[in-house]
């Protein structure tokens, strides 16, 4: 099991850059990437099994009914996943250290022993970055309500924030995080071998695939196979920052450790 001192939390709303930069930092430093967003559907199942009334009510709605919910109604049917996220991260192996990120990460849930950073950006920038995502895009009414709540909590707690509005690349944001978390990154256990790094990257890519496949199945979307997503190159080179776009239906099902690696052109496992 991991210890909280070995966890770097990165929070922020959709489009602030947290997932892309967390994946990049994990590759650079040989760390494990955990995204609470990729656990959305598993957490919903856990909430339903526990008898959570909001989760059960949302599950009974058709996809069309969900899309027509007002912002107030949608927020009322949201579930608090903080405890489940903490359970997930605590259960991860002790090494390497973990970069845990997601829209659910707020100051009140982060253990005091951990390092934590929140990424913020102008709503129009976030909306542009997430256009075409399908769900979870920034700039909508629910997102804006949640952003106001998050910013108020960040101001109240004096949490560490980085504004990514002017960042055109994930590398820029990664460099800023490395500057403010230099001591943490230098002192945490990491994967050393190429093989260990490749296994961590596959674990992260598989989580992305599972997130979208589960979401498509839950929504009744039968045309989601053409969904393009960027996956991390699985060459395992610490200096590799390449992303590889693949259609969801081009990824083997199941996407196990024995499946062929996802590699950028010219890269080798």
Automatic annotation (TrEMBL):
InterPro entries, per the entry: P-loop_NTPase
Alphabetically ordered keywords of this record: Kinase, Transferase
GO molecular function, one term: kinase activity
Protein name: Cytidylate kinase
Organism in which the protein naturally occurs: Microlunatus soli
């Amino acid at each position: 099991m991991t210890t909280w001192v070995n966890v770097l939390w990165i929070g922020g709303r959709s489009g602030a850059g947290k997932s892309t930069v967390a994946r990049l930092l994990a590759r650079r430093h040989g760390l494990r990437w955990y995204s609470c967003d990729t656990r959305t559907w598993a957490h919903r199942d856990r909430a339903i099994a526990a008898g959570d009334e909001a989760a059960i009510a949302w599950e009974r709605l058709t996809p069309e009914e969900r899309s027509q919910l007002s912002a107030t109604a949608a927020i009322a049917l949201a579930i608090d996943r903080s405890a489940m996220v903490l359970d997930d991260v605590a259960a991860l192996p002790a090494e390497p250290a973990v970069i845990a990120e997601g829209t659910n990460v707020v100051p009140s849930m982060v253990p005091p022993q951990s390092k934590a950073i929140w990424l913020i950006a102008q709503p129009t920038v976030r909306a542009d970055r997430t256009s075409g995502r399908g769900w979870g895009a920034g700039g909508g009414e629910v997102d804006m309500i949640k952003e106001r709540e998050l910013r108020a909590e960040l101001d109240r707690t004096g949490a560490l924030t980085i504004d990514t509005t002017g960042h055109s690349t994930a590398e820029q944001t990664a460099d800023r995080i490395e500057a403010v978390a230099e001591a943490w990154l230098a002192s945490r256990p990491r994967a050393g071998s190429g093989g260990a790094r490749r296994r961590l990257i596959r674990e992260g890519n598989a989580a992305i695939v599972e997130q979208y496949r589960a979401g498509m199945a839950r929504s009744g979307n039968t045309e989601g196979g053409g969904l393009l997503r960027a996956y991390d190159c699985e060459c395992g080179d610490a200096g590799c920052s390449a992303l590889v776009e693949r259609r969801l239906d081009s990824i083997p099902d199941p996407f196990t450790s024995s499946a062929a690696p996802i590699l950028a052109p010219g890269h080798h496992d």
